[in-house]
Amino acid sequence: MATSPKYRPASIARYPSGGQTSTSSRRYTHRRLIILLAFALLVSSGTMLVFHAVTGSFSLSTSSRSTGPGCRKDAEFSIIRWGTNKDNRNSNGNYRQDSERLNNDGNNNGAGSPWINDNDRHFNEYERPRQALPKLDDEHDIQPPQDEQQQQPIVNRPREPLVRENSNNSADETAPEEGVADETVEKVEEYPPFEDSLDTSDTTQYITYLPYAGITNQFYGMLRGMEVAKALGRTLIIPPITASSHDKSKQNQPWSKFLDLDRFQELTGAKVVEFHKLRDVEQAEFNQLQCRITCGFGSKRTIDFTAKGFLKQWKLNVTLSALSVDATKIDTITKVLAPHRRDKYICISNTYKISVPDKSEWERFGQHLHFTQELEDFVQAYLDKNLEKPEAVYDPKTRTTIVPTQKYIAIHARRGDFAQYCQDNFKGPKMIHCLPSTEDFAARIDVIQARLNPTGSLKGILPVFVATNERRPEELKKFADLGWSYLDHDLMGTADQLGVFGPMMVDQVFMAHAQALVGIQMSTFSRVGALRQRDWHNRRMEYL
């Protein structure tokens, strides 16, 4: 029986013993060779891919050769960083975002912008690297950008004052990054020097300074600036009272609004002039101010919020340059400023931190800075409105009838922003010297009232005024329950009549002329009041 083809065994020999092969046998052999060759090629290709993947990444991270346009190798880390136009970076490596860098549509990467590196133009939107984030600072309150999906284009904003720091102190220098020119000053638009704005027809030589911190520190900075000016025989240009980080009002007022500078010059012989007398900010263009670094401001630490606000308000860019010695003692500072004795003006970066022997700046200058008549009249009008006027008395020395001012007790109770400082630095029983409670003040007032009114008569009880930044309703109620009146400058209309710094200066008048003053030992605001009490009225302040 014939076998079915489906189950018939193969009759073709795999390796024929004869010298000839059939046609089907040769085709089978060719196919097998092709398959073997393809497999060998596949294995070799895979091996080469693995080899290049391993060796390629190693050479990318270790190669020291140039990486091509738009890239450079970091000097310390094995990474690749996108190059930037060095003209668009400041000495700290941060991007400047001045308004002139942005084109009209508010975008800083548009075609035709002079601030865009031509080598960057070939990047597409996915390849372009993200810009370095600007440093956070108190002036601008810059926040890190949101997620890229939500980030908005940069918009035009007002020009900010440029602060250049040119220090020859080797301890503050850092090695330049590989492939980057050793430039510590960025390429920016040059402004006319500050001396060009001064009157060249007179031979007066000036010295000025950058204001620092709050109003009391600015006051002491002015006194120490007077010490430097006197030692150098120069006229002091007094910066105005400038808004600090406490209020951020971005305003300024001349000291002569509150202090009688004409009388001061007559009493002391000091030569001073205010900034607004030499510079009309409404008409002025930007100028470049050259300041010498003192007390480390510009080398060891940056200039503060107040100084930056001053520069911005008065249209000044500043270059901070190191002296031969970065000093704080006044004798050293005056010596290292000697090489600049021919300069029309000298600017120093800080005066508040200057050390004066025996702290003589108050005795020499401070006690002679009396209040203006306008300021005194404002306070007197308030007293006349709220207190009974005393009877007139005859003065035998002047042979005239005098109406004495009303007698009162003043309290300076600093709260608010001061509370956290006190809580961080004064614990336990020391807290009373920094942040005394209303009950602490009340106990001291009882002692003073008993001393000034030994008979205990109701008529002899003196009214109490509280100068404070306290705004908590429960604390203000405590003042009222004790029969005290806190100086509510909103109701008094102080700022409307005297300006933004009027309230603080009115507080100083109340403190200076009080029959008794209770203040805070750790507050410079209280201590200035104590000095006026001592030297103007021969009274001793009651410190808690």
TrEMBL record:
Task: Please give the biological process terms from Gene Ontology that the record holds.
Answer: fucose metabolic process
Region (Disordered) residue spans: 1-24, 84-121, 137-186
Q: Which Pfam families match?
A: O-FucT
**How is this protein annotated for GO cellular component?**
endoplasmic reticulum
Q: Which UniProt keywords apply?
A: Carbohydrate metabolism, Endoplasmic reticulum, Fucose metabolism, Membrane, Transferase, Transmembrane, Transmembrane helix
User: Which stretches does UniProt call biased (Acidic residues)?
Assistant: 174-183
Primary site of residence:
endoplasmic reticulum
Location in or out of the cell: Endoplasmic reticulum
Q: Its Gene Ontology molecular function terms?
A: peptide-O-fucosyltransferase activity
Biological or metabolic pathway of the protein: Protein modification; protein glycosylation
Q: Which residues form the signal peptide?
A: none
Task: Give me the segments passing through the membrane.
Answer: 33-54
Q: Which family does it belong to?
A: Belongs to the glycosyltransferase 68 family.
Protein name according to UniProt: GDP-fucose protein O-fucosyltransferase 2
Cited InterPro entries: GDP-Fuc_O-FucTrfase, OFUT2-like
Bias kind Low complexity: ranges: 143-154
